[in-house]
Specification:
Blueprint lengths: L36 H11 L7 E2 L1 H8 L3 H14 L2 E4 L2 E4 L4 H10 L3 H15 L2 E8 L2 E8 L14 E3 L4 H8 L3 H10 L13 H14 L2 E4 L6 E9 L5 E10 L5 H26 L1
Antiparallel strand pairs: 1-3, 2-3, 4-5, 4-9, 5-6, 7-8, 8-9
Length: 283
């Protein structure tokens, strides 16, 4: 692949002020000896690409990743040579090979092979969407999804993120934390009023999570988005630790929160327990 002139490697004697040995603006503190800074910078370049910025110039990538042009140039050239990035004139974009990185995580999950057929059967039984997510900081990340139909203005797919505090899967995952971890996570969360029903008070959220922990499932009634109701249950490993959450999502104008509990909770719990038992056999 031809390298565009805009990213031709510069020698140390270059007149380009950005071509110094330092790859980024002065850091606030020196990282520890175990911190591989060049690797972290490479990841920051990859993260600079998203749905709103699928193709960018060198300057844009440097700005988005917090690197100098010289630092971003070196990393981009490396990613191009490895096949993770392609150059189109002055623009750069990720290639499908980047999916290998995410797929390695997905296939390493203990429930990857066993959950999807159970989710498909559940979705066909209740005629609603079914998803599995894991906790990442203050957010949940969708790792498996069987859609029935579009029910949200948010376009959900594998890799999508939602706040944990106001999502049913998030509350199931929060219930798997210790009290100290829960307090730290909630205080780090952006507790915004997403609808008129969203609970944002930390003490109330702790009480709700305690109830979820006791009853073994969670429900959201239009707290994340108007018209959205969802029901979630935990997926556990052999030791009983919550490793993921599975949900059923529906529309409030078609299935009320009360109806969802009556009709969908038993098959949801049965499906999550089946996946948990199969995970236990593999772990």
């Amino acid at each position: 692949m031809r390298r565009p002139a805009a990213i031709t490697m510069a020698s140390p004697a270059s007149n380009d002020p950005s071509a110094s040995g330092d790859d980024r603006a002065p850091a606030a503190e020196k990282p520890s000896d175990s911190y591989v800074q060049s690797f972290a910078r490479g990841l920051s370049v990859i993260r600079a690409f998203n749905a709103s910025r699928p193709a960018q110039t060198l300057t844009e990538i440097a700005q988005a990743s917090g690197l100098t042009r010289a630092g971003a140039r070196r990393i981009l050239l490396t990613l191009v040579s490895l096949g993770y990035v392609q150059a189109e004139g002055r623009l750069f974009r990720l290639t499908p090979k980047i999916l290998d990185l995410g797929f390695a995580y997905l296939t390493s999950m203990p429930f990857w092979n066993v959950a999807e057929p159970i989710m498909e059967a559940l979705s066909q039984e209740v005629h609603e969407s079914c998803s599995v997510s894991v906790l990442d900081g203050t957010e949940i990340v969708y790792v498996l999804r069987v859609p029935a139909r579009k029910i949200m203005t948010i376009n959900l797919s594998i890799g999508s993120r939602l706040p944990a505090y106001c999502s049913s899967m998030g509350r199931v995952l929060l219930a798997g934390l210790t009290d100290e971890e829960l307090d730290r996570t909630l205080r780090a969360s952006d507790l915004r009023q997403r609808t008129g029903r969203t609970v944002t008070d930390i003490d109330r959220l702790k009480a709700i999570v305690a109830q979820v922990r006791q009853q073994g499932w969670a429900q959201i009634d239009q707290e994340l988005e108007e018209g959205l109701v969802s029901l979630s249950a935990p997926i556990r490993n052999r030791s009983g630790q919550v490793i993921a959450a599975m949900n059923i999502s529906g529309q409030a104008n078609r299935t009320s929160a009360e109806e969802m509990v009556q009709r969908f909770l038993p098959p949801l719990l049965a499906a999550s327990e089946k996946i948990s038992s199969l995970v236990g056999l593999r772990s």
